[in-house]
From TrEMBL:
PROSITE patterns found in the cross-reference section: HIG1
Protein name stated in the entry: HIG1 hypoxia inducible domain family member 1B
Pfam families: HIG_1_N
An individual GO BP term: mitochondrial respirasome assembly
Transmembrane annotation, as ranges: 30-47, 67-85
Entry's localization field: Mitochondrion membrane
Residue intervals of the HIG1 domain: 2-94
Alphabetically ordered keywords of this record: Membrane, Transmembrane, Transmembrane helix
Any Gene Ontology CC annotation: mitochondrial membrane
Family annotation (InterPro entries): Hypoxia_induced_domain (IPR007667), RCF1 (IPR050355)
Species for this entry: Sciurus vulgaris
UniProt key word Transmembrane: yes
């Protein structure tokens, strides 16, 4: 093969990974925000691992998982509310005289 080992080029007519990620981000902007919040919470809780005191490791990890999942679920809920509001505002803009 003439391509370098480990180098991947998408087939003709397909988007690259970065193009696909940017397109998905424009379609639903709260998904990357939720993912980022999840990573921030997980990083913070891992950083605080040394100051956990007498708390068992398993309890600390469970609390970390719950906090990270709460951020992800919160972002999903905000995205759903945003989508419903956007659809409602489009519908009312199209039908200004109808009830």
């Amino acid at each position: 093969m003439s391509a370098k080992k480990g180098w991947w080029v998408p087939p003709e007519g397909e988007d690259s990974v970065s193009d696909k990620f940017l397109r998905k981000t424009r379609e639903s902007p709260l998904v990357p925000i939720g993912l980022g919040a999840c990573l921030v919470v997980a990083a913070y809780r891992i950083y605080r691992l040394k100051a956990r005191g007498s708390t068992k490791m398993s309890i600390h990890l469970i609390h970390t998982r719950v906090a990270a999942q709460a951020c992800a679920v919160g972002a999903i809920m905000l995205g759903a509310v945003y989508t419903m509001y956007r659809d409602y505002s489009k519908r009312t803009a199209q039908d200004p005289g109808e009830k």
